[in-house]
Amino acid sequence: MRFPRFPGLRLRAPRRHKGPTPTIPRSHLTLHDLLSEAVAGVLQRPGRSALTALGTVLGVGTFVAILGLTATASSQIDSRFTALTATEVTVEDTGGDEPVKPALSFPDDADRRIERLHGVEAAGVYWTVDAPAARRVRAAPVGEGARGDEVPVLAASPGVLTAARATLQQGRLFDSWHDRERQRVAVIGAGTAARLGITTLDTRPAVFIGEVPFTVIGVVADVERKADLLLSVVVPRTTAAALWGPPIQNRAGMLISTRIGAAVQIAEEAPLALRPDQPGHFKAVPPPDPRSLRTSVTSDLDQLFLVLAAICLVIGAVGIANTTLVAVLERTGEIGLRRSLGAGGRHILGQFLAESGALGMLGGLVGTSLGVLTVLTVAVVRDWTAVIHPGTVAAAPLIGLATGVLAGLYPAWRASRIEPAEALRR
């Protein structure tokens, strides 16, 4: 092949370079530049960044609030359990192992026998009256047109209402004199009183249990133990035994209120104190261990609500991944320009991972603040002592950071695989 000649143009042979061939220095991206690019990418679209970080805010905030509220509630469970359940003992009348069991194993002076034990505050025997004649309760005189409702009738000694820590709305509770004299008096709950249309005790209202009238002497507003008292008509046990006999189907029981720390001992001594000759007729049930109950309740709450927090974090991660992927598609030209100027795939990967990590960290910090604020607000409103573990507060922003980085892995990898020539053609 012959090349045309151009006047004035001389072709010279290239000079040979003496020495080693020069190499192009590898491009690098400092940590300062990486963080600057990440912050600029987040601040470039503040509205989108805020919405993207919202899922992480909710997830981390829920995580902190749940752990804080669970720890705070656990301390309240401890105190309330110790004050109520840990001081309650119940005794069941099993009747022993005899083929023919006695209808009522409790002696007449069962209350006094138990109250003599050291550590007992109050005790009383009770059973549900199951006689057919006592199944309907009326608030009007017996006669044609009077309507009766099925209301449970509870036969109880005076100690039951004391052990249940009943709070009166009006009137009074029956005492040992009413029980000894078999008085036809009744104490009812506020709900039962409203159901029967009894609004005041000034007129000495009566209720008719079957055909027998009982004067209502007290209305109970609330009880701390044995909540079924609020839905029953409570009458003296001696009166119920004289009218309808001892319990037939429902075995009798005893409610004992003890001082703190005495419940287990009282449970061991109660059967022998009631019937030294037949202690096997009774089964005493002590309160469960408060530590095991607290652990069980706390574990259940932790598992339930941490699942909710995990769901929120997954939603936040999906939001970050989706937004980062859209950003990769929108910034294809920018990625191609950076690659053509020397940026390597690892630099693009680090840039987008830093942006998604910054969004996760930002969401984690805001979520931690909102979670702590939620715990403090609930504690102040409920008059509790806020309990937040320092490790929870320290770990929460890191969880947000990890969520952001994991969510940005695929979009960042995809951005690092974009070829410069193809990107510039777009």
UniProtKB/TrEMBL annotation:
Residues 307-420 form the ABC3 transporter permease C-terminal domain. InterPro entries: ABC3_permease_C, MacB_PCD, Macrolide_Exporter_MacB. It is found in: Cell membrane. Keywords: Cell membrane, Membrane, Transmembrane, Transmembrane helix. Its main location: membrane. It holds the Pfam family FtsX. The chain crosses the membrane at residues 304-329, 358-381, 387-410. Residues 49-269 form the MacB-like periplasmic core domain. It is a multi-pass membrane protein. Belongs to the ABC-4 integral membrane protein family. This is Efflux ABC transporter, permease protein.
